[in-house]
Amino acid sequence: MALGLTIGQLAKMASVNVQTVRYYERRNLLQPTNRKASGYRVYSDDALRRLRFIKNAQTLGFTLREINDLLNLRVSSVARCGTIQVKAQAKLRQVEAKARDLLALSRALKRLIRSCRAGQPTEHCPILQTLDKETTVGR
SS in 3 state form for the chain? Predict the structure, then answer.
């Protein structure tokens, strides 16, 4: 793209808000290629590619700090795919642990729901009584 993209065009093409683009700039994940005489930011097609990379990595659960590491590895002449694989495996372990935690919460909620008798007054509600306890629910 010879003339470059404005921040609004870039945001629209990547399906994000302009504020998101600015936030990524503050986090040093994205930088304008240039500025017009008016001071408006101008972005290259590579910035769009980078923005899509960030969004896709976030969808997979990577934090912005981890995404920054991945972006740096992507342009490193000494990095190897194995380094990225190790990071992806670590993220997978985190996601699987979170899934186990969510499953435990789901089971705890199901138990509480089964114990509830809808016609009882709230002072006898087992859900409210459980939430009043000192111990953590479902743990």
Answer: CCCCECHHHHHHHHCCCHHHHHHHHHCCCCCCCEECCCCCEEECHHHHHHHHHHHHHHHCCCCHHHHHHHHHHHHCCCCCHHHHHHHHHHHHHHHHHHHHHHHHHHHHHHHHHHHCCCCCCHHHCHHHHHHHCCCCCCC
